[in-house]
Amino acid sequence: MSISPRQAVSDALFNIEKNGEYSTKAVLDTGKNFEPRDRAFVNEALLGVLRNKIYIDFIIQSFSKLKLKKISPYVLQILRTGTYQILFMDKIPVSAACNEAVKIAKKKARNAKGFVNGILRNIARNIDNLPKPEGEICQVMSVKYSCPLWLVEKIFNQFGREKCEEILSDSLKPHPTFIRANSLKITADDLADRLTSENIIAEKTDVSQCLRIIGAIDVYGSELYKNGYYTLQNINSQRTALVLEPKPNETIIDVCSAPGGKTTHIAELMENQGRVVAFDIHKHKISLIQKTAERLGISCVEAICHNSENTLDEYKESADRVLADVPCSGIGVIHRKPDIKYNRCEEDIIALTQIQAKILNSAAKYVKVGGTLVYSTCTILREENEDIVSRFLEEHKDFEKNFENLYLASDTEGSGFYICRMVRKK
Question: Domains plus CATH for the chain?
Fold first, then answer.
């Protein structure tokens, strides 16, 4: 039996919370069986609830006599879906949001239909006079921007109040989709022209071969994508290989490669001439790297299952350039993967910095004298970025930093990325 788009959103939210499914997978799986208009609703509502969950829960709690933890987990998802529509989706009539929520409650939790109806209609009646979060500035921002307090405090202490608010506000907004034209097959200009035949509108950016997509894009229905003319990759992620500056006929090692976006970008910049050795710790992800390379027509990539916290002796001092795009907290991509901010905790950062330091130390051993080492992450936290590099350089006097930049999502339209380039002097 088919289900409504609103029930699909509630089902997906329940699955994410109960089973820990990733939001990006949930969005793809939930929307794929709907027509474009309903798919757009599902995508917006699902990601919208996840981005704004703390604030939505604050509003629900303000109008509920029951504590949130006492509300049935599925009923809570119905309430979150309905509340998001009322608060954030101007084109959705309040009556439709309330009535459809009650229909789902009748179907999934009959005894809660009156409860759901009462809370949502009460929120709607008070839309111009909603309660506001109170407390210290970080507590207020935590609720207002739906970000855990520990993370708000970290960002606040690192960037100050004004920039912190800018970063958090931006994390609630949809960002453009970016693609990378495969330079082995096509220029960015020609790709933009050819995409129009698939009703995809793309415009150039200030990053070579990078196009910004205007509107929606379904890569799995795109013949140009299937035939390897482009790949999805965030604009700031694309900067990483450009900072590495790979050249044809070099040997380059990417120590944390999967799913292969940066690896294949390196190979394209090398004109598919030379050797790209791609490590990844997960055996099942090696095939992802290989499939991506194959789709793009790349033959110079060698994918190897290896834990890059340890050094492979056979590759010591063998590489002209090494990329260490290390596992990180992912705080730079919470606008795209909002579940990250709820699933991470402060202890995770400590554990991750230990892994990051090990991988960077190991990666350095592969670099030839005169060679280049690039360290990158998709987080904006100093502990995972500048602090890691500073300690590394204190311990490795033979390396010298010659480029470092933190790209904030709020400044660039892309995701938050840190990139640092170092050169081995001796």
Answer: 5-125 (1.10.940.10), 144-170 (no CATH), 177-232 (3.30.70.1170), 236-424 (3.40.50.150)
